[in-house]
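Q: Got a minute? One more chain.
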Amino acid sequence: MRYRKVVRMLLAAGCFYVIAVANDRLALHVLCWTTVSLTLISLSLARLATTGLAVRRLAAPTRLQAGDPLPLRLELANRGSFTKRGLLLVETVDNETQGQTTARTVLVSLLPGEGRLPIEVPGQPAQRGRVLLGPVKVRAGDPLGLYERVVVVDRARHELLVRPRVVALPWLTPAAGAAEGGQRRARVPDGMELRAVREYQQGDDLRRVDWRTTAHTGRLHIREHDDPGAARGLVVVDLHGPPPEATESLVCAAASAAARLVEMGLEVAVVGHEGVLREAEVPAGGDAGPLLDLLAEVLGTGEVSAAALLGSLAQRLNRAAVVVVVTAAEEEEDLTAELRRWSRHGKDVWRVAARADAWEALRVGSAGGVQAVEPPDGVVACSG
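A: Always. Here it is, folded:
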């Protein structure tokens, strides 16, 4: 609000009044009361311009991929009978993961009385992380520009998760044995151990519904079992202080590798350490969504190195047929030795080195050799 202009106008009116009384000048009396009248009229018009407004958020996505436009979809309603002019709509965009807060503005030049105006703007490319949209405010002023009023028309906040960008990796192909294991039927054999009961996600096999939990909670739940014969993929993300300029590339590489292994029909887990062990897992034939949701919120502030993390994941590594380690650190002897050790145990081991705007994927052999991948140099840009 432009309080300063209003205060100055009132101070000027007061000065005119004092001078008018001291000198008994009619012209100064008129000037004084004219100034006061203009100020009050400006306040009234600005208040009238923001009275009776309401905003309704139109259908908004709950998931986006980094780089996709962040849409602004609102409907502005004028419940009053007076036409509104020159309204500035302001929506706050708060990315909690990146620690950034911005504002998006739309100018509404005319809104008739009792009218509704749908507003749809593509918006800027979304950044990875958990994003809160709102509140929505309206700014309006008087025709003279003396007074501006800001009103919150919608305090509700819409939560949106922006997943990392996924790049196609046709060259990341697990060994033949691993691929065969992942193509098994979704049916769970009798007598297998129950691993977990979780809420239903789109794409889950309805034959695995846990009816007891579903009846108890009122929401559809799925039973997850351990299949010792199913092929598994493990993506280990090195969150041990990557350079800030390489963090998004690191997360992009991990997301792309996880999505590729899911596409191959493997049971896939993503593991990282950031103060606590962060992990997500999807069954064979499932959807990569939970893995991407986990990677959407990582910060790259871990204190456990990739080699140390691998050393603590012996049980998972024993079960995995394909192991992909994504790191932004320079080649380390401890990590290289750990990767060679698991390669000697018959694992298909990959090391992905993230760079500022790209990354390089190498298949590790038991003797430390590297198998060529496509494209020949192995470099893939996450922005392209």
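A: The CA atoms of residues 141 and 148 lie 4 Å apart.
Q: Perfect, thanks.
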